[in-house]
């Protein structure tokens, strides 16, 4: 934690789409979606994660990235928001890569995640990088 600006130490959010990789039949979701499985795997892994207290890991019913499932997003006040997709739901290393990238995001005062520094699983899947909101006062 040395060297991390204290302004960075505010609550961060990691959103996980639980509708991703769903099987639909007659207009209804059938069984557990890939996103729900990914959320379970990520939550289990995050129990021992050094930044577990710094992030709220939240389920989101849909992030409108259906053609790029599974999807996750990092967000925090004053930082860029990232939306990543095309993440395999049933590979344990994917959840590890998401937490590694979230750790990098936490350490950056502006939230910018250079492509070269990201874990391999998150290099190709950027769907959006949204600038932080300006001063609303």
How far from one another are the termini?
31 Å
Main pleated sheet: 5 strands, mixed
Given as residue ranges, the uncertain stretches (5+ residues, pLDDT < 50) are 1-8
Query: CATH-wise, what's the superfamily?
Result: Glutaredoxin
**DSSP summary, beta strand count:** 7
Strand share of the residues?
A: 15-25%
The helix-strand sequence is EEEHEEEHE
- Please bin the fraction of helical residues: 10-25%
Q: Can you tell me the CATH architecture?
A: 3-Layer(aba) Sandwich
Q: Tell me, briefly, the overall form.
A: globular
The averaged pLDDT comes out at 87
CATH fold descriptor: Glutaredoxin
Number of discrete domains = 1
Strand order of the largest sheet: 4-1-5-6-7
Please give the CATH class: Alpha Beta
Rg, nearest Å: 15 Å
Structural class: alpha+beta
Number of DSSP helical runs: 2
Describe the structure.
By secondary structure, the chain is of the alpha+beta class. It has one domain: Glutaredoxin (3-Layer(aba) Sandwich). It is built from 2 helices and 7 strands. A 5-stranded mixed sheet has the order 4-1-5-6-7. A two-stranded antiparallel ribbon has the order 2-3. A hairpin with a 2-residue loop joins strand 2 and strand 3. The longest helix is centred in the last third of the chain and has 16 residues. The N terminus is likely disordered.
